[in-house]
Design a protein that fits this description.
The protein is of the alpha/beta class and 238 residues long. Helices cover 30% and strands 26% of the residues. The strands form 3 sheets. Strands 5-6-4-1-7-11-8-12 form an 8-stranded mixed beta sheet, with helices on both faces. A two-stranded antiparallel ribbon has the order 2-3. A two-stranded antiparallel ribbon has the order 9-10. Strand 5 and strand 6 form a beta hairpin. Helix 2 (81-90) packs across helix 4 (170-182). The longest helix is centred in the C-terminal third of the chain and has 20 residues, at 216-235. The two termini are 28 Å apart. Bound molecules: cytidine-5'-monophosphate (C5P). The site of cytidine-5'-monophosphate has 17 residues, from strand 1 and helix 2.
């Protein structure tokens, strides 16, 4: 299995969450969230290293430079998530070739399972363009009017929620993100930048619980998941 590098955007200052700390540093199970996110990635033996894009002069970054004996690099992120990812792609080591696949994974998405990561790496690596983890929309979708009333019910067939990690080739992704930025389009994930070039990344169904921490309720849910996993390990005698 070829070695894979990961770019992790972690330069958000997390104003939506409403806490003093950016959400990637909020404590859960005695460690900052980003430690759990990194652990989930390094759990896969194909992950060679991670580049974390930080807000310039980030006072909260713990200063790690390796994890599980593998390199952990940092770079300065940008004003948008896409700019942070682009900066991370530029900071990858030279050993990562232009047509090598790289993974992009949000720092605020700590509950990624090894099973889903393996699926993405195996199936995405076999696709010419790349792939993303995602889940089908299961709720009924409403379009709201300006007054907060319902204007319409939208069909949910074939609609998916995009997660990360997302996996694309280094140069193609850099070009796609730079093209969107050059046209003033703010892409909200990497696949959107690729789609704008007419490319069709593969959707790989992943677990619903690969959620992004956005609200205090998400953090409580993650803490619950951590405790559940700890209990499971306890009862299996590990
Ligand atoms: O704010 P949002 O939840 O969309 O952030 C998703 C990820 O992108 C987070 O890990 C956040 O730190 C990162 N981000 C970034 N640079 C920005 C904004 C967000 O790296 N300018």
């Amino acid at each position: 299995m070829p070695a894979l590098w990961v770019v992790m955007p972690a330069a958000g200052r997390g104003t939506r969450f409403g806490a003093a700390l950016p959400k990637q540093y909020l404590p859960a199970g005695g460690r900052p969230l980003i430690a759990w996110t990194l652990e989930a990635l390094y759990a896969h033996p194909a992950v060679a290293g991670v580049v974390v894009a930080l807000s310039p002069g980030d006072p909260d970054w713990p200063g790690w430079d390796e994890y599980a004996g593998r390199p952990l690099l940092t770079c300065a992120g940008g004003a948008t998530r896409a700019a942070s990812v682009l900066a991370g792609l530029e900071a990858l080591p030279e050993s990562v070739r232009a047509d090598d696949f790289v993974l992009v994974h949000d720092a605020a998405r700590p509950n990624l399972s090894l099973h889903d990561l393996s699926q993405l790496i195996e199936r995405g690596g076999a696709d010419p363009v790349g792939a993303i983890l995602a889940a089908p929309v299961r709720d009924t979708l409403k379009r709201a009017g300006d007054d907060g009333g319902i204007d319409a019910t939208e069909p949910r067939e074939r609609l998916w929620r995009a997660f990360t990690p997302q996996m694309f080739r280094r140069l193609q992704l850099s070009r796609a993100l730079a093209a969107a930025a050059g046209q003033g389009v703010e892409v909200t994930d990497e696949a959107m930048a690729m789609e704008r070039l007419g490319l069709r990344p593969l959707l790989i169904e992943g677990a619903e619980d690969n959620f992004k921490i956005t609200t205090p309720a998400d953090l409580a849910r993650f803490e619950f998941e951590l405790e559940r996993k700890q209990r499971e390990r306890g009862t299996s005698g590990e």
